[in-house]
Structures are given as C-alpha cells and as structure tokens.
Amino acid sequence: MNVYSDSSHTALKYLKDTEVNLSNLLIMAGDFNIRDSFWDPAFPHHSHLCDDLLIVANSFNLELLCPTNNVPTRYSNSDSGSNSTINLMFLRSGSRELNSYSILLDSRFSSDHASLIVTIGIAEEYINSFKFSIVKNSEEESRFIEEVTHAIKSINADNLVNSFKLEETTTSLTSTVDYVWKVNSK
C-alpha cells in the first residue's frame, strides 16, 4: 500500500479511525510527513503520531525495519533547512523474504525525496500450460471458417423479437462456434 499523508496527517487519521480490512498486506510505504526520533536520529523529539503509525502498521501485521543505509529521505531545498526522514517502509512481520529495504539517494533527480526500494523475490515455477490453435491456411482453418459462416448465415433474424430470443440465439451460436473450434483445433 502506498501512502501519502499530508502535513495534517489525513491518511494516518483515516487509517487509525477507519476499520480498514486489508488482508495479506506485505508492504506499506510512503511519505508519512512525521518527524520522530524513533526513525530519525537527527530529530530530538518523540510524537504521539509515531505511536499511532506504529499501531496502525501493527494492525496490518507490518513492522518498521531500518533501511540498509540509514540516511534522510527528504532533502531541504534551502541551506538553512534540515534534511529529515519522513518516507518510511513497513514490511510483513517475521518475513524472511521481505526483511530489508534501501534508500536510493541517486534517484532523487529534481525531487526533494529519495526513493525507497525493496527487492521481492519471485520463486521460479513451471506452469504447464497450453493453448489450442488452428494452423493458418490448413484444411482445419477452411473447415472452421466454412462451418462458422454457415452457422451465422443460418440465424433467423425474423425470430429475434425479444431479448429472450436474442439471448437464445447468441447462446446457440456460441455453442456452435465452441464445438467447431474444438473439432478443428489442435
């Protein structure tokens, strides 16, 4: 889940005050706009907003992990301003696969925020799949086209007097096309 909480902490208030039913959430990340000594050693204060955010994350079975490189995530545009950590990532509690993330300073370009990155491993899996087809310009293709064309030409349009008859006709045509496909495809 990607979160942006404005300076009034609207998203945090929403997540805290609303019973959000999200099952199997693996990651919650974003700009939470909360400065706190819990995740920013350069900031000397602790806030109740930090506690609220940790409670919300815990309700999703997520925990805040330290990045592999603990550097600020927001950079001041002025020399007098201070850099801060307000972009955070919460990952599935106890997960062996999702247990760390990094802050990409080089990806900021003109933004004042650094990107957060997590690697999600995908297990290699063989999926036995197949699809039926008809070889182009084959006898089967000619037979398929001929039989479907005949089925379409055989539709009695005078019989389509109501939605029931239309539904009945389209269902019959669909069944015919499915059958002709099965007979001619490999």
What fold name stands as the CATH topology of the largest domain?
A: Deoxyribonuclease I, Chain A
Can you give the mean pLDDT?
A: 87
Q: Order of strands across the biggest sheet?
A: 1-2-4-3
Strand content: 5-15%
Spans of at least 5 consecutive residues with low confidence:
none
In total, the number of domains comes to 2
What structural class do helix, strand and pairing data support? Answer: alpha+beta
User: Can you count the helices?
Assistant: 4
CATH class of the largest domain: Alpha Beta
Biggest sheet architecture = 4 strands, mixed
CATH architecture of the largest domain: 4-Layer Sandwich
Order of helices and strands: EHEHEEEEHH
Please report the total strand number as a whole number.
6
Report the CATH superfamily of the largest domain.
Endonuclease/exonuclease/phosphatase
Rounded radius of gyration (Å) = 29 Å
Can you describe what's shown?
The structure is a single chain. The chain has two domains: 2-117, Endonuclease/exonuclease/phosphatase (Deoxyribonuclease I, Chain A), CATH 3.60.10.10; 139-184. Helices cover 31% and strands 12% of the residues. The protein has four helices and six strands. It has helices at residues 10-17, 48-59, 139-153, 163-184, and strands at residues 2-4, 27-31, 62-64, 87-92, 102-104, 115-117. Strand 1, helix 1 and strand 2 form a beta-alpha-beta unit. The protein is elongated and about 80 Å long.
Concise account of the structure shown:
This protein is an alpha+beta fold and 186 residues long.
List the helices and strands and how they pair.
Blueprint: E1 2-4, H1 10-17, E2 27-31, H2 48-59, E3 62-64, E4 87-92, E5 102-104, E6 115-117, H3 139-153, H4 163-184
Parallel strand pairs: 1-2
Antiparallel strand pairs: 2-4, 3-4, 5-6
Helix pairs in contact: 3-4
